[in-house]
Design a protein that fits this description.
By secondary structure, the chain is α/β, with parallel strands linked by helices. The chain contains 15 helices and twelve strands. Helix 1 crosses helix 7 and helix 3 packs parallel to helix 15. The chain is elongated.
Length: 375
Amino acid sequence: MSRSFLSGIRVLDLSQFLPGPFATQMLADMGADVVKVEPPKGDPMRALDPITNDRGASPYHALVNAGKRVVTLDLKSDEGRATFTDMIAAADVLMESYRPGVMARLGFGHAHLRDLNPGLVHCALSGYGQNGPMRLTGGHDINYVAATGQLGLTGPDTKPHMAYPMVADYAGAMQSVTAILGALVGRGTTGQGAYLDVAMADSVLAWQSQALTALKRGHPPARDADMLTGGAAFYGVYETADGRFVSLGAIEAVFWANFCEAIDRPDLIDRQDEPLPQTDLIADVAAVFKGRTREEWDNVLTDVDCCYHPVLEIDEVEHHPQNTARGLIAPQEGLETEGGTSVLLPFWTDGAAPVPRTPMAEVSAADVIGGWKKR
């Protein structure tokens, strides 16, 4: 089972909001013992509910911290620092998402952390990284994707469109997990931990090699102009007669031919290689799709091997047959009354689906330290 991969690994999580906690939740899903350390006022995510404006505790905090234990510590107090020192000495991983310099001001700069625990894997997740002119600049997801070209290439030619869910937040979380797992493997050989400087902006920048290469070769990518940005008729989003939308990804010639035959337009087959942007061909395909409802197109194209899929609204996602078969969407224990849905660790292990997460548990630091000292 995936939950046993990291059995015995102890993770301290000082991060807040979404990116860091999502990273440590993945570690918890794979079996790590994750203890989230929050200040006396709690993670600000507890009060952040921009969707429903609920006045109570945010369900999003409970969702992203399910599967973890949570302790309250004041790292600005002598007692809190002493307790945290004991926890660091017994931990394998420290995840934090403060601005550069904050850990040092709290008395836990990385050199000191290494003295306390040479085997500690310390992952510092920040917006722009620990060095460079923007290291202390505040930001959120929209700023990080803007800084790396991703936002500039997304949307129609008239205006960039932001993506949801948040691209950089989740990319930064996943990059953190990758780095942590690599460092743990390396520690198994050397016995030494590592200091990992992960930036959310860098995590999106890492996806830009193709765009930067195209630029270097004199073909700068642009919205609505290139094969994967809306300039190709065979790769795009189209509106149907009932105001719904469908996606088409018929890049390979065989898929395009299958599509054209299925819509009774074999005359379009030889036009696939028209120069980009394929404005006229896009208009022709758009007119075809506007002739029927989304349900009608589902009936025509679902079983055709042409890379077609309807654009699902969020209320359709949970009940889609493929998502049902994969078993990743589950009620979150502890949030059933008000409504809480988790999407579980997104891979199967040895033919088994991931298991549901236990609710977040509030515990004392003494309980954590007592248990960890029993190793």
